[in-house]
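Re: [help] complex structure
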Amino acid sequence: MFTGYNTKKRVNERYKIVGFISSGTYGRVYKAEGKNGRVGEFAIKKFKPDKEGELQYSGISQSAIREMALCTELAHPNVVHTVEIILEEKCIFIVFEYAEHDLLQIIHHHNQPQRQAIPAPTIKSILYQLLQGLVYLHRNWVMHRDLKPANIMVTSPGKVKIGDLGLARLFYKPLQNLFNGDKVVVTIWYRAPELLLGSRHYTPAVDLWAVGCIFAELLSLRPIFKGEEAKMDSKKMVPFQRNQMQKIVEIMGMPSKDRWPLLTAMPEYPQLSSLAAGNSRFHRPQGLENWYQTCLKNNQYPHGPSPETPGPEGFSLLQQLLEYDPQKRVTADNALQHPYFTVHGIPSENCFQDSKIKYPVRRVSQEDNDIRTSSLPGTKRSGLPDDSILGRPAKRLKEG
Amino acid sequence: MAASYWDSTQRKFWTFTKQQLALERKKIEESERNLVNMYPLPDRRHLSIHFYQQLTKMARPLAIRQQALATAQVYVRRFYTKVEIRRTNPALVLATALYLACKMEECPQHIRLVLAEARHCWALDTSFNDISKIGECEFTLISEMNSQLILHHPYRSLAELQTQFLLTMEENTLAWSIINDHYLTDLPIIHPPHVIAITAISLAVVCKPTQGGPQLHAAGLTTALQTLTNPRNAASQGSQNRVLKLVDWLAESNVDIEAVVECIQEMISLYEVWESYNDKACKDQIAKFVKARGLDK
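Output below.
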C-alpha cells in the first residue's frame, strides 16, 4: 500500500554520534563514527525544518533541495565528499566525509597566542587546491556563492575541500534571472563589488573575488575588507552595503569607468560618489601593493626570492583576483596557470607538508548528542527569501 | 556538450537500454501480479499523454515554465520504473513531481499554490486536503531517485546547435515541440539529450513546418525518415540541399546515427498511438484502482 513515506535507512542504525560540531542558519552539524561495518569518521548535517517544532511534512526548502542535488551530483578530491543522504521521518541528513580542520580555525590558531604567520608553502598549497576545486565546480556550471574561510575544509593529511554548497547554484540555465529570488548572497566580507553594486547578472567571477579575499586573509590573518553589514530594513528592501564598499575602496581606490566599462550600468552606481564625499581616504587609498608589502613585513615573510615568501608573484595573483571588473577578473582556470604556482615548483598536494605546526583538532561538544530529537531553534537562512514566493497568491486558494 | 553530462547521475544511473527497462518493469509488475491483473491500464504512452495534460492544467495558472514540466515528467517516469503505479495515487505523484521540479528548475512555487491547483484538477480527489501529503510524497520521490535530481535536457543542446544548422524560426519552434513531445515516450531515459536534440532538428529540417503550423503526423514523419536515410532520392528538390548537408554533418560527427533513427521511429509510433488517445478511458482506469484501494485517502 502507498500509505506514506517509508524510511529505508536510519541514521542511528548507521552512525554513532560523537558530538555536536556547529550550528548555522541551515541546521546543525554533528561528528559521527560509522556503525555496523561502516568505518571512519563523518560529519552529518541535519537540516532544520522551516518552522520550529514542525510536526508535519511541509515541503523541503529550495536551498536544501539544491544542496542535496548538487552534493549527489558532484565528485572531486577538492570538494567535500558526500557519503549519502538520509531522509528519515521528516528529517534530512547529509552525511559528509569528516575534515579535522577548516581555514577559519587555522587562521585563528595563527592569531594566538603569539601572532605567527602561516608558512608561505602552506598558503600556496591551500590556494592551489582551492582553485582546483573551483575549476571543477565552474566547469560543471556550479557557482559556490558563499566561499569563506569557515567553508573551506582541510583534512588531517592536508587536503583542502570546498564545503557547504547550501548557496551554490547551477548557472547554465539561460532562461532564469539569477537575481530573481535570492538577493543576498555571500557573507559580506567576501562579497564581490558587482554584488555590492547591485548587479543582476553575476557570474562565477564572484567566487574568484572571494578567493582573493581568502588569500589576503591567509597572508595577513585578518579579513582584508571587514565591513559592517547593513541589515535589511522593515520593507525587506536590500540595502546598499555602504560600509563594506567603503572598506574595499579604502584599499583598492575608487573603481573607474576606464578600468570597468560597465560600472556606470550598476544599479547602485550613483551611491558610489556619495561614498567619497567627506572621506579623505578615498582620494588617497592605501593601494593593494602597499597593503601587500606592509602585510608581508608585519608577518615577517623573508625578503628576496624564496619559497618561504609569497613574493611578487603572490601580489600579482592577488591583484588579478581582486580585480574590480568581473569580466577582467582572472578565472579559476587561468589562476591555476599563474607563475605564483610554478616559480618554486608545483605546490604540494598536502598543505601541511614540511610544516611543523600542530593544529588543534575540531572542537566537539557533548551537550547535544541526540541527532534524532534535538531541538532546532531559530529560523531558516536569513536574508535569503528564495523560498518565499513573493507575487500574488492565486485566487483559487480561497475556494479550496 | 557540457562536460557535466558525461559524469552526470542522469547518465550513470538513469539511462537504460530498452531491454533493461522492460526487465525492470516486468519485475515490478511480477511483484504485484494480482493488482496488475485486476486493474488493466492503457498503453504507457496514453498514460503519459494523460499525465502531461494534467500537469499542464496545474502549470498553466501558475505560469510554470516548460522546462519544469519536462523535469516533472522525467521524475514521474523514473519513479514508475521503481514503484508499481497501482500502489500509488498518480494525482499525488504528479502534483509532487511538479512541486519538486519547480524548485530544481529555479522557478519555485509555494506548496500551497501547487496544492490548490491539484485540488482544482482532481476535484473529486480527497487526498488533497493538506500540504503534508505533498510534503511526504516529496520524501518518497527524492528517496526513490536517491536525491539525483539534476537533469540535462535537450533544450540546451538545441539552443547550442540551432546556430550551427542555421535553423529558421519555424524549424526551431518545430524542433522545440518535438522535444516537448519526446517526454511522452521512454526516450528521455534511454538516450542522451544531444541525440534527442539532433533527432528533433533532423525531423524539423526534413518535415519543414508547412502551412498547418508545427503539426506532426506519423505519415509525414515516415516520409521524413525515408528522406533522411536516403537523402539523394528526396522528393522535394528545394529541401534536398539542406537535408544533404545535415546528413553529411551527421556522418562526420560522432553522433550515433542508429540512435537517431531509433528515436525517429519512436516518435513516429508515438504520433500513431496518439490518434487513438482517449482521455476519459485513462482517467477511468486510474480512478478504478485509486478508489478501490483507497489510495486517495
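The radius of gyration of chain B is 20 Å.
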